[in-house]
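Consider the following assembly input.
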Amino acid sequence: MGDIVVLVKPSLNPDMTRSKPDGTVDLDAIPLKLDDIDANALEAAKELKNTLGGKIIALLLLPWGPVQKRTRELKMVTQEALARGADEAYIVSDEKLLPGDPIITATVLSNAIKKYAPNASLVLVAEASIDQTTGQIAGRVAAKLGLPFISYARKITINGDKIVAERDVEDHIEVMEASLPAVVSVTQEINEPRPPTLLQIRRAGKKPQKTLSAADVEPIPERKKEPVEYKILTVSRKQIIIEGDTLEEIAEKLIEALEKEGVL
Amino acid sequence: MVDAIIVASSVQEVKESLSAVSSLGDVEVLFYGKNTDNAAEVAKLGVKVYVLKSQHPGALFNAVKKLYDEKKPKVIVGYGTKNNRDALSRLAGTYDLPMATDVIGVEFKDDHIIYKRGFLSERAIATEKIPYPAIILVNAKVFEPVQREGSGNIEEITIEEDSVKLLEIKPKQLSGINLEDAEIIVGVGRGFKKKEDLELAFKLAELLGGQVGASRPIAADYKWLPEDAWIGISGKRVAPKLYIAVGISGAPQHMAGVNNSKIIVAINKDKSAPIFKLADYGVVADLYQFLPVLIKKLEEKKGK
Ligand SMILES: Cc1cc2nc3c(=O)[nH]c(=O)nc-3n(C[C@H](O)[C@H](O)[C@H](O)COP(=O)(O)OP(=O)(O)OC[C@H]3O[C@@H](n4cnc5c(N)ncnc54)[C@H](O)[C@@H]3O)c2cc1C
């Protein structure tokens, strides 16, 4: 029936946050990684692939520059997406699109889907990313493509030309049904992504991938978000490890410390 | 001329959003969902209220779009609830509007908006600038709720849903515990091997007069606790005087929810777990050995 497009974000890895001497974030020094919940989206695509009968297309956009410096990291993220089940990858990478602005990102991704994945019957997007965590790309892309949208899916099943999803809202679950093609954002709970096997990693290198420039995905809208400052949040915790010869001793010392703090 | 439209599904959301846009002029409210019986309470804040008695995300999107088209507000503001994010990201995509989420501070200048929000899973704070018109979704409990008396009109609107069908609503099991108000919280993570073992954490919490919260996987994925125990960037943000994290690794998305605690204690068997750098007091131990001892010591003290 159709292909599955998975939007894959090479995100700044928050666990490798780096600071400049003035306390601002050293963006260029933080490495990129395949975003956490994108792994869930790829896993979901693998599970649905047989039912939908098409291939899995990973679509990446480099949101952090400089392009030159990010080439190797971008390649690694692409390889990982392919090892995690994508059959082919399109990678948009262009200095003109940096730094990522959700308006530009969503437009470029939508343009790329129309042009390079015209047979897509499903677009899967993570509920949010680890660097910006704004969770707005899926909804923007759905609006741009004019497709039905289901957000925060914890479970999806394909039923003929329909998709049924369990949508997580804070205090209840909504079972939603949409006609395909559709855009669906998935949550971390949707599955347990399996780490790629050695064989999958080796095969990934042979799968087709194509790098696109801004010119390939026009028209590009005007940038609206301007960074003013990115400042490291310093948490000044005491970081005292309580030690002792026995657990009893440690427990007593802990209770004593907490009493001194006035929190018990 | 309407300056701002608030999109909200509870009175508290309206009060805090009103506070966020207090420097702007005329404000109207789109009040939707399950609590619309409280619309009169919103109107008493002196704002015009449009009531949408639906919680269908497509209906909400259509309602927001209709109001946006008619009123051309400079700002749309609300909490970052899942329904708000769903509907407003679609509005943002429809008109290429800038949209800031998880906002913890905002200034409305003459020709632009400056806001602050978490960045890098809240390891950093971003300050960014966007033009009008824009969508601003604020974090809960950041803005002091507005208290005022007035009288606004209430107008019920009916809107078509979009093509997506809502087949069924399944309730979640919730504890109803207000973790946001708890003074002491014992947070449980994947260091616990099975649901029954959480009894240790409940025992500890009970002795301390506290509540039990959890990392996302424990509540949302394994469902060992009701989902209102979920603490973190996508769950609840708490600020107890004491947070005891047991078997929690210290992922930034979890810590974002507890960083306002006065004192953080970490109990983890891995001495290199990131949480020890984010805690005041750390105990490197197996929780299965340490918690019974800690509980015993606390009981002894209480007995005295
Ligand atoms: C967009 C996004 C949003 C997210 N939102 C949230 C959120 O709101 N809240 C949240 O919590 N997470 C959130 N997460 C998930 C987060 O990244 C982590 O995966 C999660 O917090 C890990 O939970 P944990 O610490 O319980 O488990 P783990 O990371 O698996 O840690 C378990 C810890 O237990 C220790 N341990 C194991 N056995 C024992 C033992 N016997 N005794 C003592 N210690 C032991 C281990 O050493 C380890 O450190 C989010 C992720 C993303 C991508």
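Residues 111 and 131 of chain B are 6 Å apart (CA to CA). Ask yourself how this observation constrains the way the partners meet.
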